[in-house]
């Protein structure tokens, strides 16, 4: 995409999302940034810039906070392990230049990290295995889960 097309696309994002809540914009440029095109993220950032934020959203610790927040409401049973994974990643050299995406896919926590660093990949893989043994709602790992929810939490 050339610079003119990039700027037009970014302006379209700005026009379409000018009324988006600040918290949602922050989530889009932090924990969800790799789910969007560069021109979309640039548009979100421009809107935030015009809102004069008084804190730095571009740190690994802030990303960790938003990454955890992304899952905390819907999947509280996984949060302790997601926090642990993010801490391990940061301690082992993960930074904002290394894309990481995560989602719930049919009851399983899926996390993808775009790096050649074997240690970072192993951290993600081992934590995904641990997380997927637990109920996404209560964190119980004693019962077998169906679509990420244990028997005790399942509502018929």
Précis, in short:
With 156 residues, this protein is mainly alpha-helical. It contains 6 helices and 2 strands, in the order αααααββα.
Task: Extract low-pLDDT stretches.
Answer: none
Largest sheet: 2 strands, antiparallel
User: If strands are numbered along the chain, what order do they take across the biggest sheet?
Assistant: 1-2
Mean pLDDT: 92
Structural class: mainly alpha
Residue share in helices? 40-55%
Helical element count? 6
Summarize the helix and strand pattern as letters: HHHHHEEH
Number of strands: 2
- C-alpha termini separation: 49 Å
Strand content: 5-15%
Instruction: Report the radius of gyration as a whole number of Å.
Output: 18 Å
Q: Globular, elongated, flat, extended or rod-shaped: what is the shape?
A: globular
Care to describe what's here?
The protein is mainly alpha-helical and 156 residues long. It has helices at residues 3-17, 22-29, 38-50, 60-72, 79-91, 118-131; strands at 100-105, 108-113. A two-stranded antiparallel sheet has the order 1-2. The relative contact order is 0.11. The mean pLDDT is 92.
Per-chain topology:
Elements lengths: L2 H15 L4 H8 L8 H13 L9 H13 L6 H13 L8 E6 L2 E6 L4 H14 L25
Antiparallel strand pairs: 1-2
Helix pairs in contact: 1-3, 2-3, 4-5, 5-6
